[in-house]
Structure formats: C-alpha cells, structure tokens
Amino acid sequence: MVWLHTVIDVPADRLDAASAFWAAALGCPLGDPWAGHPEFRSLLPLTGDAYVHVQRVGSARPGVHLDLEVDDLDAGVARLVALGATARNREPAGAWQVLASPGGLPVCVVAGRGDRVRPDGVDVGDGLRERLVQVCIDAPADAVDTEVAFWRAAIPGRWAKSTSEGLIGKLHPGAGSTVKLLFQRLGEDTGPVRAHVDLGTTDVPRDAERLEHLGAARVTDCGRWVVLQDAAEMVFCTTPNDPDEELV
C-alpha cells in the first residue's frame, strides 16, 4: 500500500484562518501542534489515520506538497534521487528527508508506520459527504513530461490517460491509499511545478456554496468542478470524485 500525506503549507500570518477553514471544510478537527515540530498540525479524521496536515512556513505564498511513507528511509531517498529528485535537508532526528522533484515541487520521504487505515468520507452537513481525494500536480510545458515520468516511476499504481484538454492523466496508487495524483499542463512555457488539492464531494454546486460560506472565494466554474481559493489565497477545487471511492 502507498501511503501519501498531503501537507498544506501556509504563511505564518494566515495560518490561523487557513487552519480553521480546512478543519471546517473537511469536517476534521485540528490536532495539537506536533511534539518537537510545532509548525505542523494534523487534521484528525473521525475514522482511520490522519493524512492531511497544515504546516506553518516562512515563505510568502501558500502551497501543497506530498510526503511519501517508506519502510527504509535511506533506501527510499536513494530511489527518488536515482529517478531525478534532488535531496535537500534532513529532519534533525532523522524522521524524514526533504527532496524536490525534477520540476522543483517539494516532496518528503518519511519513515513509515506500516499499519495505516485510510479515512472514510465525512458527513459535513446538508446531506453532503467530503474527503480530500486528489492532489493535482501542475506543470508548465517545459517540465510536464519529465515531471509525469518521475511521479509515475516514484509511485506504483494504475495510470489512466486523460482525454480532457490540459489534463495529462491520473495515477491511482491502489487500494488503501489516501489520494490519487492528477497531472495538469499549465498554460505557461516555463516556471516551477506546483500542486493543488481537489476535494471529492457528493454534490459540487452545493459544496461550493458551503465552502464559500466557510470563507473560500469562488474563482471559476469549470462545469463538473469549481475552482476556489482558501483563506490563505491558495487555489483548490471541489470535484465530483467519490469521497468514499476505494482507490483501485
């Protein structure tokens, strides 16, 4: 089983508002700051293990990155470096290693626990169910092929090619995993690779209204999904992906 953590990186001056928003949006209470790393707090699901976390960062812009759990930290780092990642700094106690994908997207390799249980979707009121189901990796034209190849090699799973304009395909890591990875070609020739989160809901129009009431700003309606911004001005989407779907 592939266990991926989704980390929402928030500038310090917007941390409280963004943390409160995501706790309400996902129907998961915000946990206490991590012991030894108070910059992190987890969103605690009603069932299963936490996989969505909020991190206070020193940069001025919000973002999203992934943490990949592995059985052997050194071997996991070496494998990603061999696939094209760049090693950065290691957590002082050796719990994780920070790397960057070929396009510069941060990714951490984390010492795994091995007995994880994926949370179910959450009833968030008014008959709606919700779960963070997908991370979309957004790459400019000059980086998209290399970035897709890296993640397909790094994360085992089923690949589904997309027929939608601008979307490359989707990686399904398999049963028990937390999120799918969607790959999007940006309308930019060059620049850094970045990522955003996609929520899965049972009713996109009503969920978009709910998220606006919680403080999100609507950016655009794209037909089947809606693009919004959170309290830290980070873009995300609410989509018709099934919040309870088993990721096979």
Describe the overall structure.
With 248 residues, this protein is an alpha+beta fold. It is 17% helix and 39% strand. It is built from four helices and 16 strands. It has helices at 15-26, 73-82, 144-154, 204-213; strands at residues 4-11, 40-43, 52-57, 63-70, 86-90, 96-100, 106-111, 122-125, 128-139, 158-161, 167-172, 180-185, 194-201, 217-221, 226-229, 235-239. The longest helix has 12 residues, at 15-26.
Helix and strand layout, with pairings?
Layout: E1 4-11, H1 15-26, E2 40-43, E3 52-57, E4 63-70, H2 73-82, E5 86-90, E6 96-100, E7 106-111, E8 122-125, E9 128-139, H3 144-154, E10 158-161, E11 167-172, E12 180-185, E13 194-201, H4 204-213, E14 217-221, E15 226-229, E16 235-239
Parallel strand pairs: 1-3, 4-7, 9-12, 13-16
Antiparallel strand pairs: 1-4, 2-3, 5-6, 6-7, 8-9, 9-13, 10-11, 11-12, 14-15, 15-16
The class by helix and strand makeup works out as alpha+beta
- Strand tally, please? 16
Specify the CATH homologous superfamily of the largest domain. Answer: 2,3-Dihydroxybiphenyl 1,2-Dioxygenase, domain 1
| CATH fold-level label of the largest domain | 2,3-Dihydroxybiphenyl 1,2-Dioxygenase, domain 1
**Apparent shape:** globular
Tally the helices: 4
- The amount of beta strand, in percent, is 35-45%
CATH first level of the largest domain: which class? Alpha Beta
Q: Over the alpha carbons, how many angstroms does the gyration radius reach?
A: 17 Å
Distance between the termini: 11 Å
Can you name the CATH architecture of the largest domain?
A: Roll
**What does the largest sheet look like?**
9 strands, mixed
* Number of structurally distinct domains: 2
Question: Helix share of residues?
Answer: 10-25%
Poorly predicted runs of 5 or more residues: none
> SSE string, helix = H, strand = E?
EHEEEHEEEEEHEEEEHEEE
Mean pLDDT: 95
